[in-house]
Amino acid sequence: MDRLIYTAAAGARALMQRQDGHANNLANANTPGFRASETAFRAVPVRGEGMPTRVVSLEASAGFNEKSGPIEQTGRNLDVAVLGRGYLAVQAPDGTEAYTRAGALQVNDQGALVTSQGLPVNGEGGALNIPAGATVSIGRDGTVTAQPATGPAQQVGRLKLVNPEPGALRKGDDGLLRMDGGGEAPADPEVRVAAGALEGSNVNVVEAMVGMIAAARQFDTQMKLLQSAEQDDQRASQLLAPVR
């Protein structure tokens, strides 16, 4: 059977992966702090008898766009937006440390500072716990201060803000970022945040739509190649069939 079938099928599979990435980006165009996924592919020659005249597409990496999104003022004291490069450290459901730009924070029933998804926010000295009934304010350096109804204000701790090297993070299926190869990034005292604001998604809706259209057209091309290979195989079978 001609290798065209395998190469066309591999191309169609890669285009489906790219289409899934564009669709996920569009679905999160209004998600605060979302980082657009980027899918990269590389051409790999098909090894076998004869000359390597065919190539297949394989996914090389699952990266993301590090460009900052627009910052919108909300006036809510628990909303924070990271200014420039940097990320908030949170505790992922599996217990590992992960990173995000989504700064819509809140205080849960146990008094812990968590994200809008309920993930605990990591502080430089551990978990951040807010006294009951206290008003929270967050400084530009990430310092969390609680003001009780009566009495003086008290410093709860400081948000763990990190700034790994470009390319050191990998995006997971849950949308959280993690260090490539595991481990935890050190806190960076130079990272600053803006209180009362949220960073929007960095998805470019027009580019994502154009990408979806281009991927759909390329997928149709791969399907036509498969049909052409099937027709060629049928004709070859007819020509090589024994004469009765």
Automatic annotation (TrEMBL):
Assembly notes: The basal body constitutes a major portion of the flagellar organelle and consists of five rings (E,L,P,S, and M) mounted on a central rod. The rod consists of about 26 subunits of FlgG in the distal portion, and FlgB, FlgC and FlgF are thought to build up the proximal portion of the rod with about 6 subunits each.
UniProt cross-references to InterPro entries, sorted A to Z: Flag_bb_rod_N, Flagellar_FlgE/F/G, Flg_bb/hook_C_dom, FlgE/F/G-like, FlgF, LlgE_F_G-like_D1
Keywords: Bacterial flagellum, Cell projection, Cilium, Flagellum
High-level lineage: Bacteria, Pseudomonadati, Pseudomonadota, Betaproteobacteria, Burkholderiales
One GO CC annotation: bacterial-type flagellum basal body, rod
Name the UniProt record assigns to this protein: Flagellar basal-body rod protein FlgF
Annotated ranges, domain Flagellar basal body rod protein N-terminal: 5-35
Ranges of residues in domain Flagellar basal-body/hook protein C-terminal: 195-239
Keyword Transport belongs to the record: no
Similarity-based family: Belongs to the flagella basal body rod proteins family.
Keyword Flavoprotein: no
GO aspect biological process, one term: bacterial-type flagellum-dependent swarming motility
Record's subcellular location: Bacterial flagellum basal body
